[in-house]
Amino acid sequence: MLLVDDDPAVAKVLGALLTQAGLTTHAARDGREALALLASKPVDVVVSDVRMPGMDGLQVLAEVARGWPDVPVILLTAHGTVPLAVEAMKAGAADFVLKPFDREEILFTVRKALLRAQGEEARQQVRPSGGFIGRSRAMADVQAVLVKAAAGTATVLLRGESGTGKELAAKAVHDASPRRDGPFVKLHCAALPDTLLESELFGYEKGAFTGAATRKPGRVELAHGGTLFLDEVGDISPAVQVKLLRVIQERELERLGGTQTVKVDVRFVAATHQPLEERVKEGRFREDLFYRLNVVPVWIPALRERPDDIEPLALHFLEVHAKTNGRPPFTLMADGLAALRAQPWPGNVRQLQNFLERLVVLSDTQVLGGKEVLQELARQPGLAPAPFAAAPSVSALETPTAPVTDSARTLESQRKEMERQAMVDALKRAGDNRTLAARLLGISRRTLYNKLEEYGLL
């Protein structure tokens, strides 16, 4: 946990509270000190005051979103209003808490952010850059449907595998709609348990549960006048499905612990990779909710079903990541493109983007042919068979030259040596940027720091 507040007393009290709850905390008195700590220590969640001299909380939020997009930010403010909350959510804040804060409320909010961070890390999500890119007929048809859907107010249900760009499609609908100047609010439904998901969606009144020290609007209210994107809606429980159905049908809700009916003007866009029809038959998803969501269904095809899009996507990602990482422009040769097209890309566009970013950072040449692509593919499990040595003969197995325990110990020491060297190489390639090094290694920042400490590299 990183606490950012120019008032040492607030930071001390909050730090003690979180420490008592079993969390490790670091404190910074301003935004610049916070960014320096983020660059040098593993941080899962940032809690920042809004009003600070120099760099304020919203500026801290913007810098964290740019440099550490996987780290959620909670904002503290003594001047809490719905407009400020909407501004914070539009800027990417995970949550906001009013001062003076209640002990249970801040712990509730922090734990909720930790759960969300763990959900994002598990998904290993990297948002696609730019708008839709491609030249396939399949994606042209998708874009045509999205443009038509954007003009109205009907609920849109985005279907397709993970990594195909459903969030990008949802944002495209919002940006092309008459609601484009309103908020675009996102909620990943699968990242939170039922109790937290319900309070996130509908908000709560003061005293609704332990930790509810003040009234707080939910994501539906915050999306008033704009669009609410419900990602992985197929994973919500039957209990939450009932309440969501009512909001979509009636455009009204009650906050948790409240009796007042709140009217909302919201356009719903939902997404799922789940087979909802099968879930309806199994009784795991309400049929009436399915029909309410499925007004304008849009299927986003998997990348393997539109190989013509691999070339424009690859060229786009190479250009973007070369600029981001301070590298000269890259040239993709025909045999390099052929190697990319030959892959199934089970993680779809997201996996292709991650792969090309690693290729940009690790490559020693600006000309990417089949050799360079295949070398990097060999390091990625599930994309291409990794090089392996020939198996020993039966006679060699029957007459070992050393005890099995010694061989196993040697194998373990070799594994650790190779792992340590991989850490050193990644840090060198990343210019000692540990966030980038973790991405190159395909692990979380927390795992990287644990490994660096294990091998004495901190």
From TrEMBL:
GO BP term, example: regulation of DNA-templated transcription
Domain of life from the UniProt record: Bacteria
InterPro entries on file: AAA+_ATPase, AAA_lid_NorR, CheY-like_superfamily, Homeodomain-like_sf, HTH_Fis, P-loop_NTPase, Sig_transdc_resp-reg_receiver, Sigma_54_int
Domain annotation Response regulatory: ranges: 1-114
Residue(s) carrying 4-aspartylphosphate: D49
Pfam families: AAA_lid_14 (PF25601), HTH_8 (PF02954), Response_reg (PF00072), Sigma54_activat (PF00158)
Residues annotated as signal peptide: none
Domain Sigma-54 factor interaction: 132-361
A GO molecular function held by the record: sequence-specific DNA binding
Entry keyword set: ATP-binding, DNA-binding, Nucleotide-binding, Phosphoprotein, Transcription, Transcription regulation, Two-component regulatory system
Name of this chain's protein: Sigma-54-dependent Fis family transcriptional regulator
